[in-house]
């Protein structure tokens, strides 16, 4: 039986994370903002597929569903979509194999129960999804930075695996309350660079906003390094809210937020959502990170 919150949220016409089909207005966004056209979609996918199949030493998925993610992320520019795909698999298999190819699966699974990263059950008014990252739930004495970054990557790719997210975009809500010197010591410069790649030009995602909540002086110092590598466009989408829920609600609807952020969702359990959504996606994630460029 649906809870009162679920009933009220559906009544207000907020879309759930998973939908059986794309609504008419979401398809209008795809057409107007992403240049997606039903008549030419298949042709663009086939052009991208040919580039991928011709790429030397690259072994990865070439099905329509997968390639469409990259086309939507780059507004149906085949060349830019291909570059994004190349970058993703270069990061996986060449630049950071220790984080992705050699990741400890058991450690990643154990992070599911920590509630470090979860996807909110309902979408924002414009159809965008919210990925919640709670730094304070990461215990660096139990899970190192490699596990943390691989897990966050799994959560991000889980979010953008959904077609509505590919079209409407994503808000990353990063609650940095509880960030300590122990976290900073784990996040070495090369890992901060990887974070910047994840925000800038690697995954097939359209960021609508990056919201930093409860940012401490320690975290602001760390973020200043990441900030250097971001584009001007992405920098403009980074919002420091301190601890102001009023500021946060200007970008993310109160109706879909958990109560700890001044929202209406009193049933939200970050660990439960993480286990359900990211846990179910994990096999696909592992298949993805073990694809990429192979060395003969």
UniProtKB/TrEMBL annotation:
Which Pfam families does the entry link to?
CRAL_TRIO (PF00650), CRAL_TRIO_N (PF03765)
Query: Mind telling me which GO cellular component terms the entry cites?
Result: membrane
User: Which SUPFAM superfamilies did the record assign?
Assistant: CRAL/TRIO domain, CRAL/TRIO N-terminal domain
| Coiled-coil residue windows | none
**Where is each CRAL-TRIO domain found?**
104-269
Q: Which PROSITE patterns match?
A: CRAL_TRIO
Q: Which GO terms describe its molecular function?
A: phosphatidylinositol bisphosphate binding
Identification of the protein by name:
Clavesin-1
- Read off the lineage from the record: Eukaryota, Metazoa, Ecdysozoa, Arthropoda, Chelicerata
């Amino acid at each position: 039986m649906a809870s009162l919150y679920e009933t009220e949220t559906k009544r207000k016409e907020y879309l759930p994370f998973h939908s059986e089909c794309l609504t008419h207005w979401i398809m209008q966004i795809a057409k107007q903002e992403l240049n997606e056209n039903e008549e030419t979609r298949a042709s663009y996918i086939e052009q991208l597929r040919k580039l991928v199949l011709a790429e030397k030493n690259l072994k990865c998925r070439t099905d329509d569903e997968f390639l469409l993610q990259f086309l939507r992320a780059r507004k149906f520019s085949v060349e830019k979509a291909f570059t994004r795909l190349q970058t993703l698999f270069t990061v996986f298999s060449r630049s950071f194999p220790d984080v992705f190819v050699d990741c400890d699966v058991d450690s990643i699974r154990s992070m599911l129960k920590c509630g470090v990263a979860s996807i909110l059950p309902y979408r924002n008014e414009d159809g965008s999804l919210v990925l919640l990252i709670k730094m304070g739930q990461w215990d660096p004495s139990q899970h190192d930075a490699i596990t943390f970054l691989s897990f966050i990557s799994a959560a991000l790719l889980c979010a953008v695996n959904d077609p509505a997210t590919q079209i409407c975009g994503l808000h990353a809500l990063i609650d940095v309350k509880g960030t300590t010197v122990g976290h900073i010591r784990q996040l070495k410069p090369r890992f901060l660079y990887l974070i910047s790649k994840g925000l800038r030009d690697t995954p097939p995602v359209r960021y609508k906003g990056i919201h930093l909540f409860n940012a401490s002086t320690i975290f602001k110092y760390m973020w200043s390094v990441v900030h250097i590598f971001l584009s001007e466009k992405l920098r403009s989408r980074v919002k420091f809210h301190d601890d102001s829920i009023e500021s946060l609600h200007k970008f993310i609807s109160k109706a879909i937020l958990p109560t700890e952020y001044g929202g209406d969702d009193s049933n939200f359990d970050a660990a439960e959502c993480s286990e359900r959504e990211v846990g179910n996606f994990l096999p696909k994630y592992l298949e993805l990170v073990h694809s990429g460029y192979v060395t003969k």
